[in-house]
Amino acid sequence: MGSSQSILADTSAAHSYYDYIIVGAGAAGCVLANRLSEDPAVSVLLVEAGKSHLDELKSKIPMTFPQVFKTPQDWAYETTPQRNILGRRLFWPRGKLLGGSTSINAMIYHHCAPSDFDEWTEDAPGWLLLLLLFVFITRVKQTSAK
């Protein structure tokens, strides 16, 4: 990275002006901050409401991910009443730590349904499913468990 710094609790190195301010240090926020900071002429501030996950053992072991739910590392959201399940609300855990929800999801990875991508093309014609699948395939490397 070009001009990256880590400012966790210490604000003494903070600037009064940034070219980009990214709110949320989840998967997308971290990648975006990394890419933008490759230019040494650009200043980037990445803000996260939660703490670092480095000291949180439960976020490092996939089998323990439910133990992070309803802790300070989880926003612990609840959905609005859901019509198709008799108005019940569902628990909706979201990561409140560096890495965001990717730090509490048991390392699960999935693609959206093709119909989701079809909806994107209505507003953004260049976002074709076949092109996106090519990007996904080139970014993912599956390895054998042997």
TrEMBL record:
<dbReference type="Pfam" id="PF00732">
    <property type="entry name" value="GMC_oxred_N"/>
</dbReference>
<protein>
    <recommendedName>
        <fullName>Glucose-methanol-choline oxidoreductase N-terminal domain-containing protein</fullName>
    </recommendedName>
</protein>
<dbReference type="GO" id="GO:0050660">
    <property type="term" value="F:flavin adenine dinucleotide binding"/>
</dbReference>
<feature type="domain" description="Glucose-methanol-choline oxidoreductase N-terminal">
    <location>
        <begin position="18"/>
        <end position="123"/>
    </location>
</feature>
<dbReference type="InterPro" id="IPR012132">
    <property type="entry name" value="GMC_OxRdtase"/>
</dbReference>
<comment type="similarity">
    <text>Belongs to the GMC oxidoreductase family.</text>
</comment>
<dbReference type="InterPro" id="IPR000172">
    <property type="entry name" value="GMC_OxRdtase_N"/>
</dbReference>
<keyword id="KW-0274">FAD</keyword>
<keyword id="KW-0285">Flavoprotein</keyword>
<dbReference type="InterPro" id="IPR036188">
    <property type="entry name" value="FAD/NAD-bd_sf"/>
</dbReference>
<dbReference type="GO" id="GO:0016614">
    <property type="term" value="F:oxidoreductase activity, acting on CH-OH group of donors"/>
</dbReference>
